[in-house]
Amino acid sequence: MRATAIQSIHAREIIDCRGYPTVEVDVWLEGGAFGRASVPAGLSTGTHEAHERRDGEKRYRGLGVRKVVDTVNKEIAPALKGMDAVNQRAVDMLMVHELDQTADKSRLGANATLGVSLATARAAAAACGLPLYRYLNAAARVIPVPLFNLINGGKHASGQLEVQEFIIMPVGAENLSEALQIATEVGWELKDLIIQRYGKIAANTGDEGGFVPPMSGVEEPLDALVEAVKRAGYSDKVVYGMDVAATHFYDPQERVYTLAGKKHSREDMIQLYKDLCNRYKLVSIEDALYEDDFEGWAALTKELDIQLIGDDLFVTNPHRLHKGIAMGAANCILWKVNQIGTLTEALDVAEIAYRHGYGVQVSERSGETEDAIIADLVVALNAGQIKTGATVRGERTSKYNQLLRIEEELGAHAVYAGKQFCWKGYRV
Ligand code: PGA
Ligand code: ZN
User: Fold this and answer.
1) Which percentage of the chain shows pLDDT scores above 90?
2) Residue 148 C-alpha to ligand 1 middle, in angstroms?
3) Which listed site, 171, 249, 290, 347, has its alpha carbon 20 to 30 Å from 242?
């Protein structure tokens, strides 16, 4: 028996940062190596994501995952026993094609397959005596620019902002540790500014650690970010981004987006973005339009010369990405492993993006655990950008802290992607 053969797999129910139950999986190999991973969960989810299975029973208002845990322990574990963990593709494809056999992983649950997939990768890396990022890619060396989400709206906050995320990107930092310092100091300035303007009660934070001030529209939060960056003294090192998550304030019947009480057509939205790009150093907009409006996305991509990211649009799915590429919709994919449900499929999607000149932005979910695996994955992909919240809350800082360790480990070989990040994203 090979040392890297899977000896046992054990899943359990744990809780994420919102207190929602989620799946954690342990994988043991014959030679004694061990890997553990847990599964994140979205709230502002795309309609076309792989299926996240929940118990639907009284406990945790239906959100329990005990049935998923059972699936891992009683069905997936025996099927995978003895397989070589180093053969990630074989492990993942067995779950997808032989055990699940649905298009959206609704039988096993993408939260079952992903937990097993990621824990297997960790165990295999451990067996090889390598950090995960290096096990996945011997050429891994790019430390990503973080997109720090400092003002939270939409489904992640109890405020009135429709736009979900207002972001700063310290592209002018020398390295990740300076980027973290900049974001933290800007966050403190923003907090002071919010308290001055709206009082202490307004300085609470949302699901990704950004503030939830009583602001409205798009300009007010962007102006506040610009002012906070200025007060912190980093105007020359910071550019801006947004995740609009537009699907969540779009009415498909009326075909309008309602922003700050005003109705906007698709064309109005494109014009709004053009105006914003003229007024702010805005270099990255995610989910600018409705998730199924590929035509609108293609028009937007023609009109704007910045990074345009598809999250709900692509849902880390190869078919949706291919459709977008064929139509010229967006120029970057948001990469979330749980949207597709296995590491192998997620790596394949990133490869498609790269081959067609699309960027890849690795992302957390709003529902995270302290598992920092995306830090290793973003370096393995040399993707050059990561979106993982503000510099507060343990489930966010765990990712940043792991990236600091990787940056240290790579030493002089590390390349911080800031200087290479241009208005069309990270391209090398
Ligand atoms: P979610 O949001 O994790 O709640 O889906 C994140 C995003 O929209 O990028
Ligand atoms: Zn998004």
Assistant:
1) 97
2) 14
3) 347
